[in-house]
Design goal:
The protein has 9 helices and 4 strands; from the N terminus they run H-H-E-H-H-E-H-H-H-E-H-E-H. With 208 residues, it is α+β, with helices and mostly antiparallel strands. It has a domain of 113 residues: NADH Oxidase (3-Layer(aba) Sandwich), CATH 3.40.109. It is globular.
């Protein structure tokens, strides 16, 4: 879906966190896949794309997830909950990423080899804490992009960081390589989201 500058501004201004959803409205797997695919065009550190997604649509799974997510109603009533996971071993993506760029004709073979070797060396030598911070930052970018894409398609969302991450890992069998960052409920609003205000620009911006 192509957006003009004006319509993008409208999407940004009209996106609010919605917690009341029509439980009978279902978004197709195909459309959810399209939105996630568009969202993954977000930038990431060295283009290593340190994210994974678990899309939870099944009614029984959503009921279980609600108990893990502090009994938040939207987990169960939204069309789906998209769990965004971070990848602590993103350097393992380097070869695939580099080869895809080479096969697409974007880089030559020497550049591909240099990029792969450089990324593996740099990120594998970083601490787990640093890699976790990088993946968390990049997951924030892809998550925000996903929410704006959803709004542009007429859907509403709410991001949720308030859930028991260890219980999520255990229930959904998340491997040690990944860690849950945020849950995003998506669906058709049954009630408007609560509007909020923002701090004055001069309190958060300095021009030098």
């Amino acid at each position: 879906m192509l957006l003009t500058e004006q319509s993008l501004s409208t999407v940004i201004r009209e996106r609010h966190s919605v917690r009341k959803y029509d439980p009978n409205y279902k978004i197709s797997k195909n459309e959810l896949s399209e939105m996630i695919s568009e969202a993954t065009l977000a930038p990431s550190s060295s283009n290593l794309q340190p994210w994974k997604f678990i899309v939870i649509q099944d009614t029984n799974f959503k009921k279980e997830l609600r108990t893990i997510a502090n009994n938040q109603e939207q987990v169960e009533t939204s069309s789906a909950v998209i769990a965004v996971l971070g990848d602590k071993e993103m350097y393992n993506n380097a070869e695939k990423v580099g080869r895809c760029a080479y096969e697409a004709g974007l880089i030559d073979e020497a550049t591909m080899t240099r990029m792969i070797e450089g990324s593996i060396k740099l990120y594998s030598s970083a601490t787990v804490e640093n890699r976790t911070q990088i993946a968390t930052y990049d997951a924030g970018l892809v998550s925000m992009q996903l929410m704006l894409i959803a709004k542009a398609r007429g859907y509403d969302t709410v991001p949720m960081g308030g859930f028991d991450k260890q219980k999520f890992i255990d229930r959904f069998e998340v491997s040690d390589r990944y860690f849950p960052i945020v849950l995003i409920a998506i669906g058709k609003a049954a009630a408007p989201g609560r509007q909020t205000t923002r701090l004055p620009l001069n309190e958060v911006v300095s021009f030098i």
